[in-house]
């Protein structure tokens, strides 16, 4: 009997062909995450993506589901406890976003150092004006919370600007392109060095509202905060207080505690804040990179019974 892989996202003909070549003995069925075919999912051994209303079908005792490959790096919205109890292997899309998100991070940093964000506003008003305080990235320090794919790519590029790079991770282990790495418990010490404090962290019980008033007060006077990780890792009120007081010079934010950010939210009106609508990871190469991860994992799954890349540790929630 042919086993099935159900993908709940759009794949090009070439991407479909690559998956079928990597998965002999499996049929590939395309579904829709917004309108999933539950009967089809009830027969799936492997699912790529997730969708609203699929939980009960996929987690039934008789479900043959063995492995879920998410379409996102974040997994906090999945029924993790139930999936762990059922022994379902879970892999995420970590690594897909490194290049586009690093580009957004440097977009924020260059906007701030060269006052390009105010230049755009001046252009809209036909105003010929410079603040006269333009700076540069050379010699600045980037403190990057999270030394995974996104953090490492950011640190690698920072070296091209001759920046100092300080990482923060759970283990504090050395990582290429970082001059030094602190543990998460040393975050307060680390952020004090940063001209830019960059948050790339996933949302876990340990990181929820990790960036609070205490951390922002420990930041260097006049530094910038960038968050492209998860909105709930930041205490928004504490961030706004640090911005309003001038302790932080600005913030580049792609993620928020409430999304979409409500139209009446004060952050919209703060000229020292640059907002993007949780699109830092978007790229026309997204599906190609996701399929590359899946194919690598499919080969490992067929050989050893488990995917080798991006396997989520349920106890850590990433």
UniProtKB/TrEMBL annotation:
The lineage of its organism: Bacteria, Bacillati, Bacillota, Bacilli, Bacillales. It comes from the Bacteria. Residues 7-309 form the D-isomer specific 2-hydroxyacid dehydrogenase catalytic domain. It comes from Paenibacillus helianthi. Residues 107-280 form the D-isomer specific 2-hydroxyacid dehydrogenase NAD-binding domain. Belongs to the D-isomer specific 2-hydroxyacid dehydrogenase family. Keywords: NAD, Oxidoreductase. InterPro entries: D-isomer_2_OHA_DH_cat_dom, D-isomer_DH_NAD-bd, NAD(P)-bd_dom_sf. The keyword Oxidoreductase applies. Pfam families: 2-Hacid_dh, 2-Hacid_dh_C. This is Hydroxyacid dehydrogenase. The keyword NAD applies. SUPFAM superfamilies: Formate/glycerate dehydrogenase catalytic domain-like, NAD(P)-binding Rossmann-fold domains.
């Amino acid at each position: 009997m042919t086993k099935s892989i159900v993908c709940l996202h759009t794949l090009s003909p070439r991407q479909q062909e690559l998956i079928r070549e990597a998965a002999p003995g499996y049929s590939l069925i395309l579904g829709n995450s917004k309108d999933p075919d539950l009967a089809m999912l009830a027969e799936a051994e492997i699912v790529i993506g997730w969708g609203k209303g699929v939980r009960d079908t996929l987690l039934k005792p008789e479900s043959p589901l063995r492995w879920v490959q998410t379409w996102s790096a974040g997994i906090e919205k999945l029924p993790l406890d139930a999936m762990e109890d059922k022994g379902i292997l879970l892999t995420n899309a970590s690594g897909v976003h490194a290049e586009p998100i690093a580009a957004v991070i440097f977009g924020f940093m260059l906007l701030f150092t060269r006052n390009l964000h105010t230049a755009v506003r001046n252009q809209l008003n036909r105003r010929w004006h410079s603040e006269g305080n333009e700076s540069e990235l050379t010699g600045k320090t980037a403190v990057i919370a999270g030394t995974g794919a996104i953090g490492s790519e950011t640190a690698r590029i920072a070296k091209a600007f001759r920046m100092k790079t300080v990482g923060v991770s759970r283990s504090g282990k050395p990582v290429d392109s970082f001059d030094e790495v602190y543990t998460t418990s040393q975050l307060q010490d680390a952020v004090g060095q940063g001209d830019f404090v960059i948050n790339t962290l996933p949302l876990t019980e340990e990181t929820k509202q990790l960036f609070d008033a205490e951390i922002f007060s420990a930041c260097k006077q006049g530094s910038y905060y960038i968050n492209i990780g998860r909105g709930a890792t930041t205490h928004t009120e504490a961030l706004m207080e640090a911005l309003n007081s001038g302790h932080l010079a600005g913030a580049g934010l792609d993620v928020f505690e409430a999304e979409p950010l409500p139209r009446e939210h004060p952050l919209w009106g703060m000229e020292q804040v640059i907002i993007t609508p949780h699109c830092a990871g978007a790229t026309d190469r997204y599906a190609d990179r996701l399929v590359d991860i899946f194919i690598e994992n499919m080969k490992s799954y067929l050989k050893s019974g488990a995917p080798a890349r991006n396997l989520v540790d349920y106890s850590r929630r990433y």
